[in-house]
Each structure stands twice: as structure tokens, then as C-alpha cells.
Specification:
The protein has 12 helices and 2 strands; from the N terminus they run E-E-H-H-H-H-H-H-H-H-H-H-H-H. With about 325 residues, the chain is mainly alpha-helical. Strands 1-2 form a two-stranded antiparallel ribbon. The radius of gyration is 31 Å and the shape is elongated. Helix 4 runs parallel beside helix 8 (about 180-205), helix 8 (about 180-205) crosses helix 9 (about 215-235) and helix 9 (about 215-235) runs antiparallel to helix 12. It has helices spanning about 40-60, 80-90, 95-105, 115-130, 140-145, 150-170, 175, 180-205, 215-235, 235-245, 260-280, 295-315; strands at about 1-10, 20-25. Helices cover about 60% and strands about 5% of the residues.
């Protein structure tokens, strides 16, 4: 068994000049356990297997209904939570390691309902643990993060991948977060909060000089979504307008007609069909032969603007 423990040095009196921290690397060999994986690796396997098993059983991420300041340390329902806590207590798994492990699990299911809100809260508390130590110490947040058993590079790589995925999903927010669903709009707000937590982590914990600000990332994503939306409605204007604004035509009522009238009508229909076949196909885009394209396009654009104004702007802001 091997592990490390970091202890912050405390001043014994006001005149003491002691500061910093001591990190102890402990290695213990127990007979019969020479080939067993380290306890932190064992805990990771236990936590991940419980997490994915619960999803396989229920078909969704089960979110515990814990309340209070310590609610972010509750990851499962009572029985499963007791299992992971017991393992952590017996084998010295730090609470912050548990939190980072659960965040990694949630990252694989970040688009499921209500998951972004949990991830945002969890990452905010991870930020607070590293950036705001409870004791008076001169150890930087970056050094505290580097000393974690989870692995500095592993967690940074996880955040980078998550950040890229969030950007891609926000660039098509109309598809991923439809305005007709209040729950998905709530997830959109939590996704923006999660981007803010990632930016805070990069600035305060990693201590990067100029990390991308969440507001700038969201602005670029919104621009990308608008560009693709307007391009789509331009290329499919006639179809979209007919589907959205023109009511379905009512079926014609059958009328009794005389034989002579029926024959004349049939001949007229045949001639009209021949004329339509010989006429050139109507152009879908703007042209001198299709002047009603622009009013239809403007109507569609206005509907998009209204949807952004009333559904998305309050959420994203």
C-alpha cells in the first residue's frame, strides 16, 4: 500500500515564522497484498462501477436529494453512499479525491437531465477546496492541486475535454436545449454555470494568466449557432415557411356535375398538368421569378429573434 498525506504547518505562537507544508509519502507492504492495486485505484474502480451500475438499472443518473453545506459530498443513495464512505474511511481516501472521482463519472453523462447543475456545484466546491484553504498557509492553490492523489494532469485533461464538448453543444443550443422544454432550458443555464466554474478553476487553481472567460466562450457559441440557423432557413425557406406559417389546405368537397362538365374539366386538368410540366421549376432562393422569397425569409428570421429574446436570452444571461 502506498499513499501520500499533506499537512500544513501551523504557527505555535504569533511570533513563529513557520509556514509551508510537509508531504509524507507512506509505503506499507502487507503480506499477501504485494500485487494488489493501490487503494486509490481500488476506490476509483468501486465508485465508477457503482455509478454505471445504477445508470444501467434505472436508465438515468440517480441524483441524491441531499441538502445542506455538505450535500456536495453525497454522491449516491443511502446504501451505495455508505459503501464508498466506508471504503474511504478504512483505506484513507481523501474527501476531495472522492469528489474529483465523482466529477469524472458525471463528465461521461454531462448531457443527461439535471447533471450539469450537479457538476457545476461539485466543481465550485472543488475550486473552493484548493483556492480557499481553511488554515493560514502560504501554500499556493496550484501546489495544493498538484499534491492531490487524483493527478494534476489527469484532472486538467478531463476539464479540457469537457470544455470542448460544452462549446460544441452550445454552438447548436437550439437542437440540444429546445425552447419548448423548461427542464432543458434549466440545463442550459447550468451548462453556462459549469463553463464559469471551469474558467474559475483555470484562473484560481491552475493559476493561468489569461484563461478564456465564460462570457466570451458563450458569445462565440451563440454567434456560431445563429450563423448556422440563418444559413439553414435561407437554404430551406420555402419548406420551413410552409410548415410553420401556412395552414394545411382543406380537402375539396365533391360536387355533382353533369357528364359534359366532367369531360370538359378533365380536359382542362390535363392541359394544366402539361403546362406545369413544361414550365421551369420555381427557384427556391431569391430571384426575379420568386419575389416573395424575401418576405418569407424575414418572417422566419423575426420568429428566430423572438424565440431568442423570450426563451434563450433570460437563461443565458
Amino acid at each position: 500500500m502506498s499513499g501520500s498525506v499533506q499537512s500544513d504547518l501551523q504557527k505555535r505562537t504569533d511570533k513563529s515564522a513557520v509556514s509551508g507544508a510537509i508531504r509524507l509519502q507512506i509505503s506499507v507492504e502487507i503480506k499477501g497484498e504485494e500485487k494488489v492495486a493501490p487503494y486509490h485505484v481500488q476506490y476509483t474502480c468501486l465508485h465508477e462501477n457503482i455509478f454505471h451500475h445504477l445508470i444501467d438499472v434505472s436508465g438515468a443518473v440517480k441524483l441524491p436529494s441531499a441538502r445542506g453545506d455538505e450535500a456536495w459530498k453525497v454522491y449516491f443513495d443511502e446504501v451505495e453512499q455508505e459503501v464508498v464512505d466506508e471504503f474511504a474511511m478504512r483505506y484513507g481516501i481523501e474527501p476531495i479525491y472522492q469528489a474529483m472521482t465523482h466529477f469524472a463519472c458525471l463528465s461521461s453523462k454531462y448531457m443527461l437531465p439535471s447533471v450539469p447543475a450537479v457538476m457545476s456545484t461539485l466543481l465550485a466546491n472543488i475550486n473552493a477546496f484548493f483556492a480557499h484553504p481553511t488554515s493560514a498557509t502560504s501554500v499556493s492553490a496550484s501546489d495544493r492541486f498538484a499534491a492531490s492523489n487524483f493527478g494534476r494532469e489527469r484532472f486538467i485533461r478531463l476539464l479540457d475535454q469537457l470544455h470542448n464538448s460544452l462549446r460544441i453543444d452550445l454552438s447548436t443550443y437550439r437542437n440540444n436545449f429546445p425552447a419548448s422544454s423548461k427542464s432543458r432550458l434549466s440545463d442550459l443555464k447550468s451548462t453556462v454555470d459549469l463553463l464559469t466554474s471551469i474558467a474559475f478553476f483555470r484562473m484560481k487553481v491552475q493559476e493561468l494568466q489569461a484563461p478564456p472567460r465564460a462570457a466570451h466562450v458563450v458569445r462565440d457559441c451563440v454567434k456560431a449557432c445563429l450563423n448556422s440557423t440563418y444559413e439553414y432557413i435561407f437554404n430551406n425557406c420555402q419548406e420551413l415557411y410552409s410548415r410553420q406559417f401556412q395552414p394545411a389546405s382543406e380537402p375539396e368537397k365533391p360536387n355533382e356535375k353533369k357528364e359534359g362538365e366532367e369531360e370538359g374539366e378533365e380536359e382542362g386538368k390535363e392541359e394544366k398538368a402539361k403546362e406545369e410540366e413544361s414550365a421551369p421549376a420555381e427557384e427556391a432562393g431569391p430571384s426575379i421569378h420568386n419575389l416573395d422569397f424575401w418576405p418569407k425569409l424575414i418572417t422566419l428570421i423575426v420568429s428566430i429573434i423572438e424565440e431568442d429574446k423570450h426563451a434563450y436570452t433570460p437563461v443565458i444571461n
